[in-house]
Amino acid sequence: MAFSEKLSENMEQMKRTLGTDRNFDIVCREAECGGRKACLFFVDGFTKDEVLLKILQLWSGVGREEMPSDAKTFSERYLPYGEIDLWEKEEDVVVRLLAGATCVFVDGYRECLTVNCRSYPSRGVEEPDKDKVLRGSRDGFVETLISNVALIRRRIRDPKLMMERMSAGESSHTDIVLCYMSGRVDEELLARIRGRIEALHVDALTMNQESLAECLFPHKWYNPFPKFKFSERPDTAAACILEGNIVILVDNSPAAMVLPSSVFDIIEEADDYYFPPLTGTYLRLSRMGAALLSLFLTPVFLLLMMHAEQLPKGLEFMKLADEMHVPLIGQLLILEFAIDGLRLAAVNTPNMLSTPLSVIAGIVLGEYSVKSGWFNSETMLYMAFVTIANYSQSSFELGYALKFMRIILLVLTALFDVWGFVAGTVFAVCAVVWNRTIAGKSYIYPLIPFRWSEVKKRFIRERLPVREKNGFDT
């Protein structure tokens, strides 16, 4: 609906749409400028009060003869702020007002002027708890979109860095930013992502980047291996942008979504590059080895115990020392779910109680559970190693994907012995190989298709190239 030149009609229209008689936080502030009545609509808590104070002080000194005949000239003279826009339709103004902008109506002007002096409540840019590093920067993304964009801009001072803003959600109108380097990004993939976001028909992105991820990649939801890499570190996001990837930032979310991402991209961490090449290579290979061990350790242990009498002398120490009261597969599955229960309990436990409850859980699930006969000490040992190995992955999604594959391996091995173990291994390999990135490429590139030069980069942390002024890499 278009606005009128009469201020009273515009005010009545906005009050009716915004429900100012019921919403205490939507403020309607009447004022006067150059003998004309004016009105400011804004959301209390989203607006910088000092900016509004300066605007009202400036208006108090404007004479009748100084008032311009059009809204654009008025904004240039009497709205001393950097970001001013003019709108003629109510729906455009309402969306921007609820996003934090201040809307200005002046009697005699058909257009509404929006002042982008928004200020969102936000926390500090401290290092994220999940993406900690031993060495490197200690800042992290927050829930405010403009702060996250600034953290990336601070690291990439290049005019080719593009920050393209979009929105999704008929009710939420959530802001989404596509970050990429012009000339390095895959333009076909960028156009595809842009088209999918524009074509979204959802009421709201309730779970922020996860809701967007499920809308962008709705297929193959049954494959647990992650299709995207998530990071709360600005340095990681900046490095991915420089490599030609697309980083998606969603308002109200501290996590950046990187795409396209292969399994090797998801396994990588910032520590691989904050240490010298030799140390970085060791950390990367250790993480890959821990992932494989977390997948195969307990299924191999179960398979060996099913044929304990055939163990060679060098492996006899692996036999169960005590009598087994609960079948081994039952012990392993119970512990798999018990560990997740402990993880959920740790998340929901107040900080003041976390230490005593951790001690109690360790005693109960350790000594007492073995003495009671529920579990054997060997089972507890191997499951403890698997749990630690799972935590070596920075990606929660990858850790749970390995967990699901491990449970399938355990069940198939218990049911069909050696052939079940082989079938479970084939199933896990196929789940990885048949997975695809959002660009439609192989999930395990550069293994398929094979490229030796890229394989070396994935497994071995090479020295970062230094480009001299003469243009040669050293």
Strand neighbour order, sheet with most strands: 1-2-4-5-3
Computed Rg: 29 Å
Report the total helices: 16
Let me know the number of strands. Answer: 10
Mean pLDDT: 87
Concise structural overview:
Helix content is 46%, strand content 12%.
Report on this model:
- With 474 residues, this protein is an alpha+beta fold.
- The chain has helices spanning 7-18, 49-59, 71-78, 90-98, 145-153, 187-198, 209-216, 234-242, 263-267, 271-274, 277-306, 328-348, 351-371, 377-391, 396-433, 452-459; strands at 26-33, 36-43, 84-87, 102-106, 112-115, 161-168, 174-181, 229-231, 246-250, 256-259.
- A hairpin with a 5-residue loop joins strand 4 (102-106) and strand 5.
- The mean pLDDT is 87.
Structure characteristics:
16 helices, 474 residues, 10 strands, alpha+beta
Structural topology:
Blueprint: H1 7-18, E1 26-33, E2 36-43, H2 49-59, H3 71-78, E3 84-87, H4 90-98, E4 102-106, E5 112-115, H5 145-153, E6 161-168, E7 174-181, H6 187-198, H7 209-216, E8 229-231, H8 234-242, E9 246-250, E10 256-259, H9 263-267, H10 271-274, H11 277-306, H12 328-348, H13 351-371, H14 377-391, H15 396-433, H16 452-459
Antiparallel strand pairs: 1-2, 2-4, 3-5, 4-5, 6-7, 7-9, 8-10, 9-10
Helix pairs in contact: 11-14, 11-15, 12-14, 12-15
